[in-house]
Amino acid sequence: MRTPWRRWLVVLAAAVTLTSGITAPFVVRAAAAAPNQSLSGTASSMYQTNGTVDSLAVSNGVLYAGGTFSAVRPPGAANGTSQTTRTDLAAFSTATGTPTSFDPTLNGTVYSVAISPDGSKLYVGGSFTTVNGQTRNRFAAFDLATGALDPTWVPSANGIGHSIAVYGSTVYLGGTFGKINNIAHKDLAAVDATTGVLLSGFTATADGEVASMALPADGSRLLVAGDFNTLAGQSEHAIGSLDPTTGAPETWLSNTILPNTPTCNSDGTDVYINGTVAYVAGEGAQPGCYDGDFAANVSDGSLVWNSPCEGATQALMMVDGVLYKGSHMHDCSYNEGGAGGGFTGALARSFFVVYRLIAQNPADGTFEHWSPNTNGSNGTNLGPLAMATDGTQLFVGGDFTSVNNKAQEGLARFAPGTSAPPTKPAVAPLVYPSGPDQLAISVPAVTDSDNGVLTYTLYRGSTVVGTATAESWPWAQPTVRFLDSGLKSGTSYTYTYKASDGTTTTAASPKSTAVTALATVPTYQSEVSSLAPSLNWHLDDTGTQATDSSGNGEVGDFEGGVTTGVPGALSGDAAIGLDGITGYVVSDQPQPASTDFTESAWFNSTTLTGGAILGTSSTPTGNGGTNDDTVWMDNDGQIVFAMDTPPVTFGGFPGFTNTTIRSPHTYNDGHWHQVVATYDGSTMSLYVDGALVASSAATATNPFEGYLLGGYNNIGSFAHVFGFGASPGGPTSPNSYHFQGSLDEVSTYPTALTAAQVASLWGSGAEAP
Questions:
Q1: What domain range includes position 149?
Q2: What angle do CA 607, 613, 618 make, to 5 degrees?
């Protein structure tokens, strides 16, 4: 049984104790001990095409691929070398990926392939008008036993055939045509599976492209997806359900998921049925419009789940109980939680990081651990366009020319296994004195394209300090922290670490900077005081206000759902708990405008909906006014720092008025972390747990007197992808502007602290887990 990512457990890992005094590590989101899906993230051997593959089907150990190509070649062969002629339709062994002798000649693109229920025929549709020199207007059939063109199945369309579905003795044809067999039947028709004669009893038509069709095993309804607004004479956009015999419209309750407005219009690109559930893929016509996938019950179309990730989805397929998705996914910030979304990181669309292959839990749409990747090329730049399976393997076709950064065009094959190794740690551990004769070590997690649960081993020299297990994703990699105690004060130590997926262990990370263990470490409060804060809230209060120990009288008011006296970040300390709905703390008086500053807070959360940690607002309550200098957590646990800056141009879009920097790792792990945001008049810097995680040149726009807020701010003006058009859920991550979790030790400073000061501040507070 697979364990969805939402069921993470935070546990303490057992230390490998080799020396007296070595302390067990504490870890983040330790998860199941095995991968959640069966396919390797490393592609198996597969012949390539010299162009785009638009459609795939499998029958009796053979993969049929249709598209726009003129030749196939072995894996590893450069385009134009070792080629075997195949024109727009080819067949390959599913066991070896090598081509069969099937070699028809078509004079146009093949957009759709489908197998008859008995496995005897291959039906194809496209833009072609001849096959093997014989007239075949956009649709044709082949005898799979002989490979011969079927002489009797000759339906004729006056436009492109984009989709085919077969059930019993009926073949459903979809595309962009006006007539079938010279009889008016716009974009959708049904014909006899043997003769190709139009079935006049099926009356449904569409007013736009029919891109995909599917029927359940019992043939109870025909689901139709595409770029239409009218289906069977009724107003129906992008997805609909029909009676398979008459074509009469049937109830489909999820027919409003794909939007249809002047600013956001999405098409249905693929519909796939597995058992009692239909999975539907969408593509937005405008940038930022719905591009995700959703699941609905076949019986009535009632919604099961919706995953509105941006980046057009083109293909869906189930293998061994896991749903695989082909898209150019780049933003899942509307999906609640870490692995379900949050990743965008880009200020403008020209900076998107794209994940073109992904696996989803079919029960709720959340992601499984499988993330090989392709590029997008050959004109459309989409990447995967079609998927098929033989029951154990996944075949992918598309417009790509590389898979996992290796040359491979048009086709890819993924077999069962966990052969993809973890990425080698590229960053050295971060080490700080955190107590008498004790060092705190922070290890950045790495990722693995077919196994998200990795084990990390920390070394002091050649001595194993301990091991820890954590779950990570390519877009959301946590940190793993260790405490090494019982050390010799005055002695310097260095550390390295390795990652393992249980099969492959990486080489060691770079060596850390040598750090000296101390007999005594300054207390956190003494460190704060030495830096002359403008405001310092301990947040250990029991009343309705936060007292200020800076000496400047900058008290804070507790607003909404605030709980006092919760366990704090420091030993024996208390903090406040925030409900993520109404709770926050706000300064009683506005803070002076400053051209340079530092904001700092400790936070502890497992939230999946993000929220503001610190920020400045011209009003102490509500969403109004001007907001600036904001630190928030994304849905996936990444930390973001944003400032208002003068208008600049990104990706050709003028007028972008803020600068945003983001941590590469995640911190919603149920442990205490410190965030420090600084601005020195020219550079924004973001530190988490004493380490610089992001920085950017920036020019502040009109600094103003504003109220300091902890646990809330209006993030709407910051959290978006600039110039990306309409969006299905408003501004991108986070889903909530209120932070849910614990907040402690909030302080501000009238200057930008140095990296050394930030590290010292963190080290004095990083006591026990």
A1: 48-414
A2: 140
Q: In what order do the strands lie in the sheet with 209-214?
A: 209-214, 222-227, 239-242, 249-250
Give the separation between CA 429 and CA 417, rounded to whole angstroms. 31
- Bridge partners for 632 per DSSP: 612, 640
**Contact partners, residue 579, CB within 8 Å, separation at least 6:** 560, 561, 562, 563, 738, 740
Residue 409 belongs to a domain: yes
Q: Is residue 41 part of a domain?
A: no
Please give the model's pTM, rounded to 2 decimal places: 0.88
Stated length of the chain:
769
Q: Which of 762, 761, 759, 749 is nearest to 596 (CA)?
A: 749
Q: What is the pLDDT of residue 378?
A: 66
Confidence bin at 28 (pLDDT 50/70/90): very low
Q: At 56, which CATH number?
A: 2.130.10.10
* pLDDT for 34: 38
| Tokens encoding 407 | 């040359």
Model confidence pLDDT, tens digit, residues 459-507: 999 999 999 999 888 887 888 989 999 999 999 999 999 999 999 999 9
Is the predicted pLDDT of residue 143 greater than 60, yes or no? yes
Asked if residue 212 has pLDDT above 80, the reply is yes
Q: Give the CA count within 13 Å in the CB-facing half-sphere of 296.
A: 24
Domains: count for the chain: 3
- The rounded distance, in Å, linking the Cα atoms of 210 and 573 is 63
Closest alpha carbon to 394 in 414, 408, 412: 414
Which pLDDT does position 418 carry in this prediction? Answer: 83
Residues 6+ apart with CB under 8 A from 163: 111, 112, 125, 172, 173, 174, 175, 210, 211, 212, 213, 226
| Contact between 652 and 698 (Cβ < 8 Å) | no
b (16+ CB within 10 A) / e for 228-246: bebbbeeebbbbbbbbbee
* DSSP single-letter state for residue 671: S
Identity (one letter) of the amino acid at 168? G
Distances (CA, A) of 616 to 73, 575, 703, 712, 740: 60, 21, 10, 10, 18
Q: Which of 516, 534, 550 is the last residue of a domain?
A: 516
